[in-house]
């Protein structure tokens, strides 16, 4: 190992990721920018993940595997943040593919723009077999000013595994917060937005994979509720009010959010933000997201398209929930 620290630490956490892990690792080892260490936390996997990691660690001394019991993604990301030796951290996920010039392009930009603390990139969206995956969302904002405008419009901000950031800046705001499980990255970007400049390279430097079993699909409701609370906390900070989410380990149920923030209307605002995003979510309509949707309707929320959601629930094999939604639409 070099006496001098590497210029980049690549930070990857994986849990039961044997399916795509080798391809992700190969894409990192194939970078044109080679001065990096590669930290990989195996967060208690029960599949062949640890075998794959040990195989690659034996091949390339830049790889430093950390194989331990399961502690969750937030704990793993904060461990990677603390163990990194480089001033710049390049995030990477076990199911994505980095373009060969990704690190070179991001390092050069951050080196030339010291005021930028977080730099993402545009992505190419792929499915589980690597074919194009259609996405309706716009590309991520390029400038910091566009980034701030995207916050206000509720648009996508950064693709987490495409990000490279300055380690000290992320540590200065406390790293990843455990309360925002499954949307810990969004909460971090919103906290960083007022202390550093954030940008995206308008280059497609990561192939971002979509598939049914990924975290964002399995935990859609928890993710959307957390994202809504993170955005409210951001505006609380901007208004000079206390952010109560900074000191908690888990978000309370929606019904307790008014008490947490010390004023009325927070829970209703969260439901109003979350409910429209659940209308096409198979998992969201099958879990606690359905109750959020019903309460949103009873609070006087917009009913546009909800009769189509009744039909969608029938197609999803949820006739009882379809009937419950229909009754709510007729009576409330």
From TrEMBL:
<dbReference type="GO" id="GO:0016758">
    <property type="term" value="F:hexosyltransferase activity"/>
</dbReference>
<keyword id="KW-0808">Transferase</keyword>
<feature type="domain" description="Glycosyltransferase 2-like">
    <location>
        <begin position="10"/>
        <end position="172"/>
    </location>
</feature>
<dbReference type="Pfam" id="PF00535">
    <property type="entry name" value="Glycos_transf_2"/>
</dbReference>
<protein>
    <submittedName>
        <fullName>Glycosyltransferase</fullName>
    </submittedName>
</protein>
<dbReference type="InterPro" id="IPR001173">
    <property type="entry name" value="Glyco_trans_2-like"/>
</dbReference>
<dbReference type="InterPro" id="IPR029044">
    <property type="entry name" value="Nucleotide-diphossugar_trans"/>
</dbReference>
């Amino acid at each position: 190992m070099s006496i001098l620290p590497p210029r980049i630490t690549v930070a990857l956490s994986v849990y039961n990721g044997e399916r795509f892990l080798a391809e992700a690792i190969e894409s990192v080892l194939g970078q044109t920018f080679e001065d990096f260490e590669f930290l990989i936390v195996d967060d208690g996997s029960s599949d062949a993940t640890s075998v794959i990691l040990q195989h690659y660690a034996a091949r390339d001394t830049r790889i430093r595997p950390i194989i331990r019991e399961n502690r969750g993604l937030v704990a793993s990301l904060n461990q990677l943040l603390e163990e990194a030796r480089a001033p710049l951290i390049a995030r990477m996920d076990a199911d994505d593919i980095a373009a060969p010039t990704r690190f070179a392009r991001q390092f050069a930009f951050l080196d030339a723009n010291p005021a930028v603390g977080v730099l993402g990139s545009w992505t190419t969206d792929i499915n589980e077999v690597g074919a194009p995956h259609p996405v309706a969302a716009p590309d991520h904002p390029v400038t910091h000013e566009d980034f701030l405008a995207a916050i206000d419009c509720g648009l996508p901000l950064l693709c987490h595994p495409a990000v490279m950031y300055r380690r000290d800046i992320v540590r200065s705001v406390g790293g990843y917060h455990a309360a925002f499980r499954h949307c810990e990255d969004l909460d971090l970007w919103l906290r960083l937005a007022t202390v550093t400049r954030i940008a995206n390279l308008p280059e497609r430097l990561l192939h971002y994979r979509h598939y049914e079993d990924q975290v964002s699909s399995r935990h859609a409701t928890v993710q959307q509720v957390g994202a809504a609370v993170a955005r409210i906390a951001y505006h609380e900070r901007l208004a000079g009010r206390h952010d109560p989410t900074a000191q908690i380990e888990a978000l309370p149920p929606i019904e307790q959010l008014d008490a947490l923030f010390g004023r009325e209307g927070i829970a209703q605002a969260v439901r109003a933000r979350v409910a429209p995003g659940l209308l096409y979510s198979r998992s969201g309509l099958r879990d606690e997201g359905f109750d959020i949707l019903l309460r949103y309707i009873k609070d006087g929320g917009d009913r546009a398209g909800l009769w189509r959601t009744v039909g969608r629930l029938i197609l999803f094999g949820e006739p009882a929930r379809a009937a419950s939604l229909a009754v709510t639409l007729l009576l409330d």
